[in-house]
From TrEMBL:
Stored SUPFAM superfamilies: Glutathione synthetase ATP-binding domain-like, PreATP-grasp domain
UniProt pathway annotation: Sulfur metabolism; glutathione biosynthesis; glutathione from L-cysteine and L-glutamate: step 2/2
Cofactor(s) required for function per UniProt: Mg(2+)
One cellular-component annotation, GO: cytosol
Name of the protein described by the UniProt record: Glutathione synthetase
Natural source organism: Xylaria hypoxylon
Keywords assigned by UniProt, alphabetized: ATP-binding, Glutathione biosynthesis, Ligase, Magnesium, Metal-binding, Nucleotide-binding
Length: 511
C-alpha cells in the first residue's frame, strides 16, 4: 500500500476535516477542552466538549502483527491473574524496586495492613491492555509485535476506540470512495472493534459474580475518577454500555477519589460490605459490588495520609476491585522486566511457572512479544545496563522508565545519562532500561483541534483483555480478549499519550 493513504487536494482536506469533526462531536468521540484552548471563564459550567484528535484515515497495520496480539491476549490475562496471586513474587518485586519509590512502598503497606486483618473479597477483576509496536529487524524475517507495556490499572481509551473504528468505517463508505484518488470500500480491511461493549461486559460479569447483596441495599458499580478528568467521555461510553443492561440492571455512579470517605462506609459486621450513599439521592444507599478505578494509579491522587486511608478503606472492603493493590503492582514495569529477562539458572522460567497449563507454543508466542529490558541494580545484567545508561552513544537506543503510569514519566535516549547522574545511585534500582522499538514509517494525517498535521507517524497497538479470578481458590472464571486500540503519534514525538496531547486516536486497516 505504497500509495496509501492517497494524497488529497486542499478542498478534500477541508471536506474530510469537516465530516470527521462533526461525526466525532455527534458520536461522543470527544474530550473536555484543554484549559489552554478554552478559558475557564468562557465555560464556567463545563458544558463544552471538543473532538478528540484522530487520523483522517485508518493507518495500515500488518495483519500478522494484529493477529499475533489478539492471539496472545488470553494467555497474557492468565499470566497477570497468576502473578497477582503470587504475593511472594510481588513482595520480592517491591523489595527490588526498593524504598526509594515511596508510592510503590505505600501501596504495599496498604496491602500488608489488609492482609493482616484478612481480605474478605478474594475475587478480582482485571481490565487489561497490552500495548505493542511493530518491530522489523534486519534479518529479513517478517514484522513482529513487541510489547511496550502491560496495563493493569485504568487502561483507558476503550470507550473512544470502538467509536474511532466506527468513524473510519463511516468515512470508508461515504467519503473515501469519492476523493480524486478514491479508496474503494473493499480495499480496506477494518477489523471489528468491540472495546466498549467488551470492557463493560467484564465489569458486568464481576457485578454478577459478586453475588447477592447481603445488606438489604441494592448493588451498584462505582467508577472511581479524578476531579476535572478531561477524558470523561471515554469513561461515559463504558457507563452507558453497562447501564444498557436490563438483566441485571446495573446502577453506576462516579465517585471522585478525593471523596471516598465522604460518601462511603463499611457496613457493621464481619462482611465489610462497602456502602455508598450518592450525595444527590437522600433516600438511597447502595452496596458496592465493583470498584472500577480510573484514578489512584499515580502519586497525584494521594496528596496526604487521608488519601492513603481512603485506598485502604476500599481495599479492605468486600467490593471487587479493578484492580486490587496486588494487581496494580503486578502491572509495574519492574514485573515486565523480570518476565522479559531471559531464562538463566538464577531465574528459572517465570513464564512457565505461571502458565504451567499452557502449551509450549503459547509460551513461546508470548515470549516472542518481549523485547530486551534490563534492571538497573547491581546484578550482572544491571551493571551492564548501568554502562549503557551512562554512555551518551549507547543510551541512544533506549528508554528509561520509572514505576509510573499515565504517560509523560519516561526518559529517552541521550537524556538518560545526565538524568541518571542527577538521581542518587541508591535509587537507580527503581528504574528499568528498555530497548527502543523502532516501527517502520507510516504516513497519515492527524486532525487535532481543527488543524491538520501531515507526515510520518508511529502507531501503538493496544489489545484489551478482561479477566476475573479468585485469589484464594486460584481459579479463573472469566477470560476474554475484547477489542483493540490504535494510538498514533507524529514520528518526532517520543511519548504517545492522547490525553497528554502527544498522540491521537486511530484504527487499523490490516495489510
Ligand atoms: P505509561 O505507563 O506511562 O504509558 P509506557 O511504557 O507506555 O508508559 O511509555 C509511554 C510511551 O513511551 C509509549 O506509549 C510509547 O510511545 C513510548 N515508549 C515506551 N517504551 C517504548 C519502547 N520500548 N520503544 C519505543 N517507544 C516506547
Ligand atoms: Mg501504562
Ligand atoms: Mg503506555
Amino acid at each position: 500500500m505504497a500509495d496509501y493513504p492517497p494524497e488529497i487536494t486542499a478542498s478534500e482536506e477541508a471536506r474530510l476535516t469537516e465530516v470527521a469533526k462533526d461525526w466525532a462531536l455527534a458520536h461522543g468521540l470527544t474530550v473536555r477542552p484543554p484549559p489552554a484552548v478554552i478559558a475557564a471563564e468562557a465555560d464556567p459550567q463545563s458544558i463544552l466538549a471538543t473532538a478528540v484528535p484522530v487520523t483522517l484515515f485508518p493507518s495500515p497495520f500488518p495483519k500478522v502483527c494484529f493477529e499475533q496480539g489478539v492471539a496472545v491476549q488470553k494467555a497474557y490475562n492468565q499470566l497477570y491473574a497468576s502473578i497477582s496471586q503470587d504475593e511472594e513474587f510481588l513482595a520480592r518485586i517491591v523489595k527490588e524496586i526498593g524504598g526509594s519509590d515511596d508510592f510503590i512502598s505505600e501501596l504495599w503497606e496498604v496491602h500488608l495492613r489488609v492482609k493482616e486483618e484478612g481480605y474478605v473479597q478474594h475475587k478480582s477483576l482485571g481490565l487489561f491492555r497490552s500495548d505493542y509496536m511493530v518491530h522489523q529487524d534486519a534479518s529479513g524475517s517478517g514484522p513482529q509485535i513487541k510489547q511496550v507495556e502491560f496495563n493493569t490499572i485504568a487502561s483507558s481509551f476503550g470507550g473512544l476506540s470502538s467509536q474511532t473504528s466506527q468513524l473510519h468505517k463511516y468515512l470508508s463508505s461515504t467519503e473515501y470512495p469519492l476523493i480524486e484518488k478514491p479508496i474503494s470500500r473493499d480495499s480496506l480491511n477494518l477489523p471489528p472493534n468491540n472495546s466498549t461493549a467488551g470492557l463493560a461486559s467484564g465489569i458486568q460479569e464481576a457485578f454478577i459474580s459478586y453475588g447477592a447483596s447481603s445488606t438489604g441495599h441494592g448493588k451498584c458499580v462505582i467508577f472511581l475518577v479524578q476531579d476535572g478528568e478531561r477524558n470523561i467521555f471515554d469513561q461515559k461510553h463504558l457507563e452507558y454500555s453497562l447501564q444498557s443492561s436490563t438483566d441485571p440492571i446495573i446502577p453506576v455512579f462516579r465517585l471522585p477519589f478525593s471523596e471516598i470517605q465522604q460518601h462511603t462506609r463499611i457496613a457493621d459486621g464481619a462482611g465489610r460490605q462497602l456502602l455508598y450513599k450518592p450525595p444527590h439521592l437522600r433516600a438511597h444507599t447502595f452496596e458496592v459490588a465493583v470498584i472500577y478505578m480510573r484514578s489512584g494509579y499515580g502519586p497525584g491522587d494521594y496528596p496526604d495520609a487521608r488519601a492513603w486511608e481512603a485506598r485502604y478503606h476500599l481495599e479492605r472492603s468486600a467490593a471487587i476491585k479493578c484492580p486490587s493493590i496486588l494487581t496494580q503492582i503486578a502491572g509495574t514495569k519492574k514485573v515486565q522486566q523480570v518476565l522479559a529477562t531471559p531464562e538463566t539458572s538464577s531465574n528459572p522460567s517465570t513464564l512457565g511457572r505461571y502458565l504451567s497449563s499452557s502449551s509450549s507454543s503459547t509460551l513461546s508466542a508470548l515470549a516472542s512479544t518481549f523485547t530486551n529490558i534490563f534492571p538497573l541494580d547491581t546484578s550482572e545484567a544491571g551493571l551492564k545496563a548501568r554502562q549503557i545508561a551512562a554512555d551518551p552513544e549507547l543510551s541512544k537506543g533506549y528508554v528509561l522508565k520509572p514505576q509510573r503510569e499515565g504517560g509523560g514519566n519516561n526518559i529517552y535516549r541521550a537524556a538518560i545519562p545526565p538524568f541518571l547522574k542527577s538521581v542518587p545511585e541508591a535509587h537507580w534500582p527503581s528504574y528499568i532500561l528498555m530497548e527502543l522499538i523502532t516501527p517502520p514509517a507510516v504516513r497519515n494525517t492527524i486532525l487535532r483541534n481543527g488543524k491538520l498535521e501531515q507526515g510520518g507517524v508511529i502507531c501503538e497497538l493496544g489489545i484489551y483483555g478482561t479477566c476475573i479470578w479468585d485469589q484464594q481458590a486460584k481459579t479463573i472464571s472469566h477470560n476474554e480478549q475484547v477489542g483493540y486500540l490504535l494510538r498514533t503519534k507524529g514520528d518526532q514525538s517520543e511519548e504517545g499519550g492522547v490525553a497528554a496531547g502527544f498522540g491521537c486516536m486511530d484504527s487499523c486497516t490490516l495489510v
